Amino acid sequence: MMVDERVREFLEKVASSSPTPGGGSVAALAGAIACSLSEMVCNLTIGKKKYADVEQEMKKLLQQCSELREKFVQLVDEDARAFDEVMMAFREKRGIQEALKRAAETPLETASTCVAIAEKTREIAAKGNKNSITDAGVAALMAKTAFYSALLNVRINLKEIGDTAYIRRIDEQIKEMEGQIERLVAETMKIVEEWI
Amino acid sequence: MMVDERVREFLEKVASSSPTPGGGSVAALAGAIACSLSEMVCNLTIGKKKYADVEQEMKKLLQQCSELREKFVQLVDEDARAFDEVMMAFREKRGIQEALKRAAETPLETASTCVAIAEKTREIAAKGNKNSITDAGVAALMAKTAFYSALLNVRINLKEIGDTAYIRRIDEQIKEMEGQIERLVAETMKIVEEWI
């Protein structure tokens, strides 16, 4: 898996003339980083007397963020694979529409996972250790950027898809998710601003 | 250096109950990723007949992005070090103000490096290979998030600093940089939108 590479090697591979890993994998990695930061805030809350009231909730949130991180880690690889399959379909002149749909749906899954982590991050910012509030803020910003980065990759693939009903369905999903993540991140940043 | 760790290990360390690496290091890493994506677009432009006119410029931009990436990579470590020094100063009850200033100036350098890469990314989006336009878009979004993530870390450290003239000076720098990066990223995203 790509996360088994050293950070420096990953950065080199992104920078190289190979189109994968590219923006789609980076979007998923940004999502994973948002999860890690949210987990850190949970870990810095659990066991603190001042936050004993939210201890059980923080343990649950920690577990949920950790699961979302693992999902993002899978998506880093899946996005590169979906892109490579599009390239192959174009070369072989077959299965192009199917490959494009998979290449649109993979970053769409990244985007929906971003909404999920943004929701956890807001809870963590509201109830977690306020000494780490900027980390929750960075987590929210990373989740939002991961979301919009994923969307760019959805849209570039949709562009070549002829199935208008399919495009309309995805557009509706995007619209709904966009409203959700904007609200969640705005709420998180409002909490952050109160403390810095 | 932290970039010599595997991506998975880096994500684990961020997630752990140790406060470093935290949001400041993540901001610098996000900046490094923005550089890598910008470099990729350069690499996918260089050597293409269609883009022969901009070949020399792309080679220069590639080199500049690569240097900025190395600077961000250094800042990943420096931010963690500056934070650890603040903790030590508080424990030893001496040199606190100096340590806080260093801990504010390190993410401030991250922020100014974000402005620098955002400028390169805009050039690359405008003149580089349009097949990779979404990667330039993701680079711009990552640079902007890295910038605001770094700012959260500047501000949390400024909060404890008593030197009002120092704070005013930094606030002015931030204001100027904020105007620059907003403009640069908006220009980049306008180009991206034309192509997707």
Task: Write a short abstract of this structure.
Two copies of one chain form a homodimer. With 196 residues, chain A is mostly helical.
Explain how this protein is built.
2 copies of one chain form a homodimer. Chain A is mainly alpha-helical and about 200 residues long. Chain A has one domain (about 20-195): Up-down Bundle (Four Helix Bundle (Hemerythrin (Met), subunit A)), CATH 1.20.120. The first copy, chain A, has 6 helices and no strands. Chain A has helices at about 5-15, 25-45, 55-90, 95-125, 135-160, 165-195. The radius of gyration of chain A is 18 Å and the shape is elongated. The mean pLDDT of chain A is about 95. Chains A and B meet through helix 1, helix 2, helix 3 and helix 5 of A and helix 1, helix 2, helix 3 and helix 5 of B.
Key descriptive features of the protein:
homodimer, 196 residues, mainly alpha, Four Helix Bundle (Hemerythrin (Met), subunit A), 6 helices, elongated
Q: How is this fold's topology laid out?
A:
Two copies of one chain form a homodimer.
Chain A: H1 7-15, H2 23-43, H3 55-92, H4 96-127, H5 133-158, H6 164-195
Helix pairs in contact in A: 2-3, 2-4, 2-5, 3-4, 4-5, 4-6, 5-6
